[in-house]
């Protein structure tokens, strides 16, 4: 029997797929290479440009309210003349007047012709449910300073008398004869800046509110606290477009993979390395059938008497299994020869598996003993029967032997009986034997081979 090892079935199947789908795979490789080339060109050759904005400098305007009330009446807690500063609540009887300064300043690396205007207005209004019923404005202070330097403070100072403001609101309500909403009192300060900062023309406007609420013996203020606004100065430049690592690395990789895969696939096809021989296709077909019909096949050594029957050969294992199913019989696989048999009536139906295809290195060796057989898709052991001593015989010889045996059986009965005795003596264990004596004799001989060519059908 052949001594070559089993083939790498996965490689054979892979070659079969590559050969069958060669055109589709080659087109895929070309598309991959084209996409990679397009991306490489756009990434490294002509990446194009884009607008980029970056901050080169900035300037900041700070504004806040500073307020304090001087104690003017005797009391057991605060000394007369002392100052209550930046509180939320003041006492109306001992410190009725609140001095307020709305201040503004700016910071910049460079400045030129900077002017700051600060204007504060007293606003008394009546509102309710989002509706403003009436409003009265009164300018409290207004300051304008030219050529203000960075860090210099510009302020508008004024004094608030909470009792007088409350009386003013009451007088308005009395004159109107009604007060449908709630009366609010606040100071609105507008800060404006204009000039050249860091070499660029700059303008700035901001409003901030300072609320005051008279509550009889106290009045409460609502200070927004320090306000700071920074304005960045940006420049827009046209720069070369850059890409991330996904494209800068992936594009060349895509191109290389497409080119190498396409070239390798074409070279392999040109050299015939993808071609699947008839022997390999037959072997793959057999392996598929063997896997599909495994539950219908049993490994059993047939008794020599079974081979005395005429033999019919199936073209495929599938055909043999289909025939066995239709005739309500089983398919047995001879462990020694690898042949598959189905015994029905007076015939033995046989399928002999194809030899595993030889490796490419063996096929390319013209001096190899199996070279011609491999090229024809048939191995040297394509149809062997083992006689128990390592010899083999081809399928064609089997048919001749069967014919000779049948003629010999008609003319020389004694010779037929002698052949049966020799077969029974040399055959392997017989699961179909009728008695233990015959089985014991075969076991004693220790020969598990199949019948000699003279006794097989």
UniProtKB/TrEMBL annotation:
Stretches that traverse the bilayer: 21-44
Biased composition (Basic and acidic residues): 352-363
Amino acid composition bias (Acidic residues), ranges on this chain: 364-375, 409-424
Short name of any one Pfam family annotated for the protein: DUF5305
InterPro entries assigned: DUF5305
Parts forming coiled coils: none
Keywords of the record: Membrane, Transmembrane, Transmembrane helix
Chain intervals for the UniProt region annotation (Disordered): 352-457
Protein name as catalogued: DUF5305 family protein
Organism the protein comes from: Halorubrum tibetense
């Amino acid at each position: 029997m052949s001594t070559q090892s089993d083939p790498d079935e996965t490689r054979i199947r892979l070659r079969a797929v590559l050969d069958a789908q060669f055109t589709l795979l080659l087109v895929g490789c070309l598309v991959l290479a084209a996409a990679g080339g397009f991306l490489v060109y756009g990434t490294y050759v002509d990446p194009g440009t884009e607008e980029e904005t970056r901050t080169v400098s900035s300037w900041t305007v700070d504004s806040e309210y500073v307020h304090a009330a001087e104690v003017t009446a005797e009391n057991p807690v605060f000394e007369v003349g002392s100052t209550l500063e930046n509180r939320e609540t003041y006492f109306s009887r001992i410190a009725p007047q609140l001095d307020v300064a709305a201040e503004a300043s700016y910071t910049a690396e460079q400045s030129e012709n900077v002017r700051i205007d600060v204007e504060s207005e007293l606003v008394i209004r009546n509102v309710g449910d989002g509706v403003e019923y009436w409003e009265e404005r009164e300018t409290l202070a207004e300051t304008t300073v030219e050529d203000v330097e960075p860090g210099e403070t510009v302020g508008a100072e004024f004094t608030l008398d909470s009792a007088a403001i409350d009386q003013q609101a009451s007088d308005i309500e009395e004159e109107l004869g009604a007060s449908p909403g709630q009366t609010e009192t606040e100071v609105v300060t507008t800060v404006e800046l204009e000039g050249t900062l860091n070499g660029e023309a700059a303008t700035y406007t901001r409003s901030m509110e300072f609320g005051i609420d008279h509550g009889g013996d106290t009045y409460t203020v609502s200070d927004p606290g320090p306000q700071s606004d920074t304005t960045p100065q940006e420049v827009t430049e046209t720069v070369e477009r850059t890409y991330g690592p996904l494209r800068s690395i992936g594009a060349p990789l895509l191109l290389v993979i497409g080119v190498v895969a396409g070239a390798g696939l074409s070279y392999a096809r040109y050299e015939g390395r993808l071609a699947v021989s008839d022997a390999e296709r037959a072997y793959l077909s057999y392996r598929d059938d063997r896997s599909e019909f495994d539950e219908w096949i049993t490994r059993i050594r047939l008794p020599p008497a079974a081979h005395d029957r005429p033999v019919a050969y199936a073209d495929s294992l599938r055909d043999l299994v289909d025939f066995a199913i239709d005739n309500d019989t089983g398919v047995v696989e001879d462990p020694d020869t690898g042949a598959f048999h189905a015994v029905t009536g007076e015939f033995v139906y046989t399928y002999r598996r194809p030899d595993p295809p030889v490796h490419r290195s063996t096929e390319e060796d013209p001096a190899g003993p199996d070279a011609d057989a491999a090229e024809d898709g048939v191995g040297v052991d394509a149809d062997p029967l083992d006689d128990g001593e390592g010899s083999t015989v081809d399928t064609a010889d089997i048919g001749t032997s069967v014919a000779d045996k049948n003629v010999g059986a008609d003319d020389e009965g004694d010779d037929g009986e002698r052949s049966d005795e020799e077969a029974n003596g040399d055959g392997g264990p017989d699961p179909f034997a009728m008695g233990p004596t015959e089985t014991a004799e075969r076991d004693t001989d220790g020969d598990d081979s199949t019948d000699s060519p003279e006794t097989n059908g």
